[in-house]
Amino acid sequence: MTLENERVLLTRLSPSVARRIIDGREEPGDAWHRDYPFADELAPLSALAASTETGSPFTMYAIREARTGLAVGGFGFFGPPDPSGTVEFGYGLIPAARGRGLATATVGLALTHARVWGARRAIADTDTGNAASQRVLEKAGLVEVRRGGSLVFFERELA
Length: 159
Prior knowledge:
The chain is an alpha+beta fold. It has one domain: Gcn5-related N-acetyltransferase (GNAT) (Aminopeptidase), CATH 3.40.630. The protein has helices spanning 15-23, 42-49, 102-116, 131-139, and strands at residues 2-4, 8-12, 60-65, 71-77, 86-93, 121-127, 143-148, 151-157. It has an 8-stranded mixed beta sheet with strand order 1-2-3-4-5-6-8-7. Strand 7 (143-148) and strand 8 form a beta hairpin. Helix 1 packs across helix 2 (42-49). The chain starts with a strand and ends with a strand. The model has no long low-confidence stretch (mean pLDDT 96).
């Protein structure tokens, strides 16, 4: 499954592809940037690699530049919506891909599809010192709802 807009392609990652990414076993057509994956993405990729394929769209995706098809980051739902319809997500880009609107395009695209797939609310958090990520979430329509410790919490109604 691939989601796309004019800026990014989000390609769904299976457990077997996640394992190959972790192991650095690139195959023809993978098109991974040399800095991908970045360190913060290894734990979610490891969890996906250890899981069983479910077919759910609420999983991890490689973020690819639409122009080149090159994988430059990751987006992931932390699972399907809970009983209230809330879905949590996270994302990240390699340093070379930051500051070009790719994260904003990714979050907007993914949340549009989350709504179509039945999610009614989205939540995310970021470090208090990560102003760039806070701007991305705000541009995607999320609003800050609280701060706790070193985190800022955001949410957005999707329905």
